[in-house]
Amino acid sequence: MKIIIPKGSGFCPGVISAEKKLLQLREKYDELIYIYGMFIHNKEYENFLKRKNIISIQDINKLDDGSIFIIPTHGIDRNFENIVKNRFKVFDFTCPKVKNVQKIIFTHKDYLTIITGKENHPETIGLKSYSSENIVISDLSRLNEKSFIEKIKNKKILLISQTTANENLYINSLNYLNNLLKISFITELKNFNTICPSIINRENNSIDLLKKQSTKAIVIGDKLSSNSQRLFLRLKTVNEDIFFIENINDLEKILDKIEKEEKILVVSSSSTPSFIENEIIKFLEKI
Length: 287
Description:
Elements: E1 2-4, H1 13-28, E2 33-36, H2 43-50, E3 54-57, E4 68-71, H3 78-85, E5 89-92, H4 96-106, E6 112-116, H5 122-128, E7 134-137, H6 146-152, E8 156-161, H7 167-182, E9 188-191, H8 197-212, E10 216-220, H9 226-236, E11 242-245, H10 248-254, E12 263-268, H11 274-285
Parallel strand pairs: 1-12, 2-3, 2-4, 4-5, 6-7, 6-8, 8-9, 10-11, 10-12
Helix pairs in contact: 4-5, 8-9
């Protein structure tokens, strides 16, 4: 079996940097470290952090004042951030790419902000808090809803994307809004494609290798992860023989569908830690 790993597989630069800072904090302080929500969307990694006394928490009322509090890579609500900074010892590990989107929105406060992405994703929730008025487009059908049409009429529009959202969703939304601008239904349109380049590059590299060098592919990620799901679905458009697994146990369940002589593409999402990928690759190499 030949295993092919595309360039950029695994943690993106933002997560690599945040993880390094987090583990440095762990060495510096003996006390418990608290993260608001999940550091990244991967349950196996959350368990890894828990063993290091780095705990995910949702209810800040359970924390003592002065506790070490981590803002995760996807950021948090702006108003909530002000609250926690007044109570805790806060370390902000928001991805620089997400920080940039927050800044774009905040500097366009007089625009109606349209965000393409998942409505309840932590990053999207945070981004919304930087706008004075916003709409989230999770599906293209939203563009044809009466409430959407009425809300954007005669407005200045800012279009941005959740950094891990589907690029086609952003592009199709942009085309739709450009057509409205041409007929003066909206007064102005500013757009920024804020999808993380590392995610797009990983997907494109994977698709290229899948077309030219591989017979099947294994996507390693967590079902909670937007970029994991997106990677899987994009590869599915090229080849039906794509398997989504979270860990070594999932791999063992699909072994009967993989031949020893095959060339297998193995690619991890931006939220998949290297220890999971390495364990899976070592297992496959022994087949």
